[in-house]
Amino acid sequence: MVKLAIDAMGGDFAPKEIVEGCLLAAKEFSDLNLVLYGDEEQIKMYMKKVPENISIVHAKDKLDMGEKDPISAIRRNDELSLVKAFKAVHDKECSGVVTAGPTQGVVVAAHMIIKKLEGMKRVAICPQLPEVGGKSRLLLDSGANTDVRPEHILQYAEFASIFYKLTRDVENPLVGLINIGSEPGKGRELEKEVFELLKEDPKINFYGNVEPKELLTTPCDILVSDGFSGNLVMKSFEGCAKAMGIILKEEISKTLGGKIGYLFMRDNIDEFKRRMSADEVGGSLIFGVDGVVVKAHGSSNAYAFSHAIKLARKTVLSNVLETVKQHLNE
Amino acid sequence: MVKLAIDAMGGDFAPKEIVEGCLLAAKEFSDLNLVLYGDEEQIKMYMKKVPENISIVHAKDKLDMGEKDPISAIRRNDELSLVKAFKAVHDKECSGVVTAGPTQGVVVAAHMIIKKLEGMKRVAICPQLPEVGGKSRLLLDSGANTDVRPEHILQYAEFASIFYKLTRDVENPLVGLINIGSEPGKGRELEKEVFELLKEDPKINFYGNVEPKELLTTPCDILVSDGFSGNLVMKSFEGCAKAMGIILKEEISKTLGGKIGYLFMRDNIDEFKRRMSADEVGGSLIFGVDGVVVKAHGSSNAYAFSHAIKLARKTVLSNVLETVKQHLNE
After folding, report:
1. Which end of chain A is least crowded, N or C, by CB within 10 Å?
2. Residue B125 in contact with residue B227, Cβ under 8 Å?
3. In chain B, where does the domain assigned CATH 3.40.718.10 lie?
4. What is the homologous superfamily of the domain B1-115+288-317 according to CATH?
5. How many interface pairs between A and B have CB atoms less than 8 angstroms apart?
């Protein structure tokens, strides 16, 4: 049985899409036991009948999606659905938590409530990149820590390698370092030092430097960087996808052929757009705390949220945290 | 008369496309005087008749596009077409130089041969981003200097503001700072300090922080960052465009409708791809040295190279360097 805490009130379309996502996941996996934290009355509006493997714990408040100061909000208010869900993980009532709440709030709650794993120096946000060529790569840290030391990035690589091996069934996942050039010796002092650490670590299958232009086509499974750089890369991809949507529309509408062609391939272009919205389906993992934390995209619909639950379930069942703990104690 | 030095041997398709690009530009602008540096025999193969406003200066060697150590190569060999062209600017024989040679070699030559403007602390690479919504934005530094201080980025902003104002006829170009969040106070120490400097500078029309996801849709005309971050952003856009091309192809070929639609809109999609290849047309400026330097894309064809010449011409005619010099002496 995998018991997961769900923040039913986090996300742009909460609680409706969150509740429906839980129903989808609970139906698909009979080994799931979901505890939904949030406004009981509202949650029940979207469930005709509460399934056996779902329960509800009332929480009267929720963290606002645009909250400017999540640290104070989380510290001040025990009645937030997010806080209650994270406490359930801290108290070992649940093995993991899934939320579509605001990223900063999720990182803060993971830090303050669940707390870091002993021996783990930093927390990292790890999104799964859009699948290209049959592979969905990991990028971490994508924004939890802007100022880090080389050994922190080494730990990200070790953590992600264990996660990838156990959840994806790949014996020696290949690790690349995000950098501005592919040759050794490129980048700032930080990258040069991380390069050496990764190269010397016998537990890492190190590929070398990877420029962001190869992000979705590199043979690597895992890409590491400091949180500032990782965040810039993620947001650049988002910006490029957005701009490309605009430009594609401009170009298609320029000629009659373009307009006719569009009628034929409208579905293909929609599917293309969906695939390019990074981390829309699947969610990001928060690595480094003593519990499984999955952050679903803020704009998650039921389908996307059910995938985030699936990711949390898989991570719990694969004993990722236990393996990392052993590794940290070696 | 605008006299420009041309490195006829730099670029993936040199000298053919370079020479043909020069012919296009020389024909369009009778005030241009182009001096082509390179292998005379090869250059003449692509010119039936040398026009009046084009001359050739023989250089027997060229900098290899894949040269691993451009510093030594440039220091060692005065016979490189790149070195000769840059020397013509240093010696004030020409007002500017245009080359499609390798970026690192161009930056090194600008530094070592033309030399920095007095008072200018760092050199910056400034590409023009793909046009979206009728605006082509500038991003600098996109990779000349990985370790910089806040005042260097302030100078980039001042330099680019003068350039934008004089060449684009915009009275108060809007400047944004590349960052991982849009609110003040975001980013590393570097971004926080640069934010304050930009805010206080009366010569800068400062907008605030800009996340890379808004890079091509922001109201800003100019975006500044350190060279490491700027390079990551540029290469991420390149990677995203590349991946999107692959995904779009995958999706279109999945259904019959997609394939039929593609036949109708093939031209539109080709034009879309062309527009998304950042800096393919137009080239990047190298700011900070005592001469106009335009780096055309390595894969430039004649059309793209003629646009790079056009950019150099416009920059010379707009007295950008003279205005910057006045500004630096104020």
Report:
1. C
2. yes
3. 1-115+288-317, 121-282
4. Isopropylmalate Dehydrogenase (3.40.718.10)
5. 205
First to last CA, chain A: 29
CATH fold for the domain made of A1-120+288-322: Isopropylmalate Dehydrogenase (3.40.718)
Confidence of residue A78 (pLDDT cuts 50, 70, 90): very high
Q: What is the pTM of this model?
A: 0.89
Residues of A in contact with B237 (CB under 8 A): 236, 239-240
A288 reaches B (C-beta below 8 A): no
Residues B280-330 pLDDT 10s: 566 899 999 999 999 999 989 999 999 999 999 999 999 999 999 998 877
Mean pLDDT highest for which of A105-119, A131-145, B125-139? A105-119
Non-local (6+) Cβ contacts of A206 within 8 A are A174, A175, A176, A177, A198, A199
**What's the whole-number average pLDDT of chain A?**
92
Tokens 């971050």 belong to: B229
CATH code reported for the domain at B121-282 = 3.40.718.10
For chain B positions 165-204, those within 8 Å of chain A (CB to CB) are 178, 180, 183, 187-189
A240–B178 C-beta distance less than 8 A: no
- Averaged pLDDT of chain B: 92
Q: Are B15 and B41 in contact (CB under 8 A)?
A: no
Residue A298 and residue A314: Cα distance in Å, rounded?
21
State whether residue B274 sits within 8 Å of chain A by CB: no
Distance CA A62, CA A46 (A): 18
From-to residues of CATH 3.40.718.10 in chain A: 1-120+288-322, 121-279
Would the CB atoms of A238 and B276 count as touching at under 8 Å?
A: no
Residue B277 pLDDT level (bands cut at 50, 70, 90): low
CATH architecture of A121-279: 3-Layer(aba) Sandwich (3.40)
Q: Does A129 touch chain B (CB under 8 A)?
A: no
Q: Do A217 and B252 touch (CB under 8 A)?
A: no
Interface check for A13 against chain B (CB to CB < 8 A): the answer is no
A87 phi, psi to nearest 5 deg: -60, -35
Residue B240: pLDDT above 80? yes
Interchain contact, B264 vs A257, CB within 8 Å: yes
